[in-house]
Design a protein that fits this description.
With 340 residues, this protein is α/β, with parallel strands linked by helices. The protein has two domains: 2-147, 3-Layer(aba) Sandwich (Rossmann fold); 156-339, Zinc Finger, Delta Prime, domain 3. Helix content is 60%, strand content 9%. The protein has a five-stranded parallel β-sheet with strand order 2-3-4-1-5, sandwiched between helices. A two-stranded parallel sheet has the order 6-7. Helix 8 crosses helix 9 (176-186) and helix 13 packs antiparallel against helix 18 (330-339). It starts with a helix and ends with a helix.
Length: 340
């Protein structure tokens, strides 16, 4: 009996791991997707990473099916990450029914030791959604699918829990007040939270305890961002660039971009919802006090909504190009995006 029980346990383990070899991650919160992928990649043998880890961007059918039918490696597990957002949002990426059948058959018969992750990163804040009626979505949703959505800015308790968990992973402690201060300054941008925690870790050493004062003294303040954006809205682009250059002394360009995106998102909501109840605007933006919303409405009174949207689009474009390795002189590209 013990031997039979052990055989059953091994059978269930192998069956479960075979099923768990295919994943489908999608949504707007790309940083949480990156965290999941990093966890999976960390389990690979580092000595053979160049051969065991592959990333493909919107492969055609031939390349896709080749990866799906790959044989296990001799030296351990392998991981293939397939970025497929263009399958849903791009043009000329529709598979024929016969091709979809081959894709599903390959996934159903995926071999042990090969993890395949389909990733569809949805552009944040653009209101796009994957059409769940698409045959490809229905196929992939059968295999450990998980949607990654951004935290609502007004759900500070959920964001606080995420920050604390991330801090714990970095051997840090952070209290609620420090978390709320970060949220007030950043909003719900998880990647920026992570960057700030990395820098605060250096400051908090050796106690590794992050306080509210540390956050206030060392993280990007709303006033810094307000100065840049306010100058831009007034047409004083030279002053905006000077403010940006001053921030570069203490912050990386991508951090500043990310923080500006968060602030612009709040401004756009406040402007677009100018006649809405203050409580509704507070809920949508994550701004904690009604007087802050009212003051912001006054500041934005003479600024056209289209100008705010255009600036946000410019910043999103340069951020994407930086992350995709298309930019050589990052500082200059950001300056151009600010004044364009």
């Amino acid at each position: 009996m013990p031997a039979i029980t052990e055989l059953l346990r091994v059978f269930v383990f192998l069956l479960y791991n075979s099923f768990m070899a295919v994943y489908f991650f999608y949504g707007e919160e790309d940083f949480n997707i990156d965290i999941e992928l990093d966890k999976m990649r960390s389990k690979l043998n580092p000595d053979f990473l160049a051969m065991s880890y592959k990333v493909l961007d919107t492969p055609d059918f031939t390349d896709l099916i080749t990866v799906l039918r790959s044989s296990p490696m001799m030296f351990g597990s392998s991981l293939a990450v397939i970025n497929i957002q263009n399958y849903f949002f791009g043009e000329n990426y529709n598979f024929e029914d016969k091709e979809l059948e081959e894709i599903q058959d390959s996934l159903d018969n995926n071999q042990d030791g090969i993890d395949i992750v389909f990733v569809a990163r949805i552009p944040r804040g653009e209101g796009k959604k994957i059409d769940s009626r698409r045959k490809l979505f229905k196929i992939l949703s059968k295999y450990n699918s998980k949607e990654f959505q951004p935290f609502k800015t007004y759900k500070t308790a959920e964001i606080t829990n995420w920050i604390k968990t991330r801090a714990k992973d970095k051997k840090l402690k952070i209290d609620d007040e420090a978390c709320l201060t970060l949220i007030e300054q950043i909003g719900n941008n998880l990647r920026q939270f992570d960057n700030e925690l990395d820098k605060l870790k250096l400051i908090a050493y050796p106690e590794n305890i992050i306080s509210k004062k540390m956050v206030q003294d060392n993280c990007i303040s709303n006033q810094d961002l307000f100065n840049i954006t306010n100058y831009l809205m007034k047409g004083e682009k030279g002053k905006a660039v000077m403010e940006f250059k001053q921030l570069l002394n203490v912050k990386y360009p991508l951090e500043i971009l990310s923080a500006l995106q968060t602030m612009l998102r709040q401004w756009i909501i406040v402007k677009a919802k100018n006649s809405a109840p203050v409580q509704e605007v507070m809920k949508l933006t994550g701004i904690r006090y009604d007087f802050m919303v009212n003051n912001l409405k006054k500041d934005l009174k003479n600024i056209p909504l289209k100008d705010l949207v255009k600036l946000k689009e410019n910043l999103y474009d340069v951020e994407y190009r930086i992350k995709s390795g298309q930019v050589i002189d990052i500082d200059s590209e950001v300056e151009i995006a600010l004044i364009r």
